Amino acid sequence: MQLRDSPAACPALWRCLPCPSAELRLDLVLASGQTFRWWQSSPGAWTGVLEGRVWTLRQEQDRLWYTLYGEEGDEEGGPAGAAKPGDAETDQILRDYFQLDVGLPALYRAWGAADPLFRKVAADFPGVRVLRQDPVECLLSFICTSNNHVSRITGMIERLCRTFGRRLCRLDARPFHAFPSLSALTGTDAEARLRALGFGYRAKFVSGTARAVAEGLGAEGLRQLRTVPYAEARRVLCTLPGVGTKVADCVCLMALDKAEAVPVDTHVWRIARQRYGMALGGRSLSPRAHQEIGDFFRGLWGPRAGWAQAVLFCADLRKGQEPAGSQDRAPGGRGQGGCGDRTR
Q1: Which domains can be identified in the chain, with CATH numbers?
Q2: pLDDT, tens only, 57-69
Q3: How many Å apart are CA 52 and CA 179, to the nearest integer?
Q4: Coil, strand or helix: which one is 331?
Q5: In sequence order, what DSSP letters do the residues of 19-88 get, joined into one string?
Q6: Which pLDDT tens digit goes with each residue over 219-251?
Q7: Residue 20 has pLDDT above 80, yes or no
Q8: Catalytic site residues?
Q9: Is the pTM of this model over 0.90?
């Protein structure tokens, strides 16, 4: 199955949503360490897996265009049927994933009015927004980010999905798989298989957390943490194997609707110390420093402080971005950075 042509070349195969670049920049959001399942399949186009389907996304003329691909064995061999014109279900999946109901320009203006440093940096980084991801996928993915970097995490998640996930389709000789179910990762040999895939000490945490969730909250119970207060959701997450404050805050922000969560890793700690003059936590990123830095930014930026942090985080990463062309080596775009060192 071949990758779809551009919307202009094959309009019947594509749908679109109104979405100016001030609301969303795919190149910034999908390559900033929030997610590890998207691949820049051609200039301006991103292909990845969402809700157990394979998508290609493209932005043109204030529109977010998308097409979907049928699973292997689909007789038509074309885009999945749900993407036919007139079907709003797939539109809503994207709206929910990118949280397009949240108006970003107004937030940028409010954050800029409260913070001149944000205003200066954000001018070059419009359209950075927080994704709303599946809680199980987000949780298990971010356990893999401890002491790690984006390109390596991306490879780990790719191997995880190919080994434990359901095969979806093949595009230009590249296979795509769904994210594994909890049950697929709770077998007695799961940890050993993960170690063989290069997960190292994280293998125990991934399999252990999958088992703990499956035997406790369940996938639906984890999703229901969206309805509880931020502090309670973070407390529950921190009881899971391999989940500390930083990983918990990533999951709270990017999967559990806690817009006030500010994940504090070495990038954010450096931003707080160097740009805002904050000397917190001594020489180590202690739990107290986590709390104080988060509280500082919540006081500065308000109830969506985690979203504002994502903008500065993206800008900080871009300063050390690899030269053009190196992005082809892995979906995720950069060789280091991202939430990749959001360790425990």
Answers
A1: 11-96 (3.30.310.40)
A2: 999 989 999 999 9
A3: 7
A4: coil
A5: --TTT--HHHHTTSSS-S-EEEEETTEEEEEETTEEEEEEEETTEEEEEEEPPTT-SS-SS-GGGSTT--
A6: 999 999 999 999 999 999 999 999 999 999 999
A7: yes
A8: 246
A9: no
